[in-house]
Fold this protein.
Amino acid sequence: MKYIILIGDGMADYPLDELGGKTVLQKARTPNMDYMTKNGLAGLAANVPEGLPPGSDVANMSVMGYDPDIYYSGRAPLEAASMGIPLKKDDVAFRCNLITLNDDHIADHSAGHITSEEAKELIETIDHELGTDELRFYPGISYRHLLVASNDLGGNTDCTPPHDVIGGERKDHMPRGEGSAVLSRLIEESIPILEVHPVNEKRIKEGKNPANSIWFWGQGYAPSFRTFNELYGLTGSVISAVDLIKGLGIYAGLDVIEVPGATGYLDTNYVGKAEYAMESLKERDIVVVHVEAPDEAGHMGDLDAKIRAVEDFDEKVVGTVLRAAKEDDTEDYMIVVLPDHPTPIVLRTHTSDPVPFLIYSTLENDMDSVETFDEDAMRSGSLGTVRGCDIVRMLIDKAKQG
């Protein structure tokens, strides 16, 4: 048996008046997810344990078979692993966003989805101007970068994700508590440096949002993981454009597969991800494919973009994988499709609500009565509501029974 987990980040949503009371999943054309639902098993996955933040770090950790109550230590250390940045015992890694401020309000958590090339120039300038032996800045992808602080600085600081406070006044959401003075100073000092940087002057002339401030959140220490093979006896790989997911894969001992054209945005190489996933299973037991685009559209509050992202995910990722699995007469496949968490358009941030998930097998399937892949229909699925971190074990047990 080969196992495939397909994650449409943030696909789940709330009913919207603009859609006549439907959710994005109910409105979008998703024939492949609907087919797999009709011919498989349905339920809801609770990926965010009570008391933990509904971030992609917690939720995707669950989906990949790791209980966040045991393994979660923060988002940024996972991204550091993906970026090849070693963390010492007393190092605290922070996500360092490049954001757009407008009249001192947080206008854009992504600085207009700034290019990685532009962002690299800005972060290197910030590191040169503000970095020290104890405070080191590292460029990442697009708006997503890292600060690594030594000597436990910021380990207990209260930091707010910028996508949670779009439109809010910057000073109302600055770091608070122990270590906050240093972090707040860095943010304040970054603004005059970035405002006059040639990269931003060029972006403004082109009508694009400038990356005129840095912003810290998601901090933590390096976690301690058991490998996926130790937990489940399977070899596997992970495919994503996002450092967070790659970092989870690295700590889990999974192979991280790079796909040309994978961007973490609406223009990502959907089909390439699916094709690389199927190829990876020739030598491995399981593959996790993560697509960020629906989540980004949710954070933007862009309904049309989110519908398009969900439809692209269904057609180009789910559809490609489903066709390849059905056509392969040498292997049996078990496929899971789900979001990690909702990213409702009206909120523009994550929630911890359970999300719809399906299990489809190329073998003769047990089927329940659910016919469409959406938040409401899946409530009546035979799988009920399960902990997300139990799904991998559920797949293995079903394969053994089967």
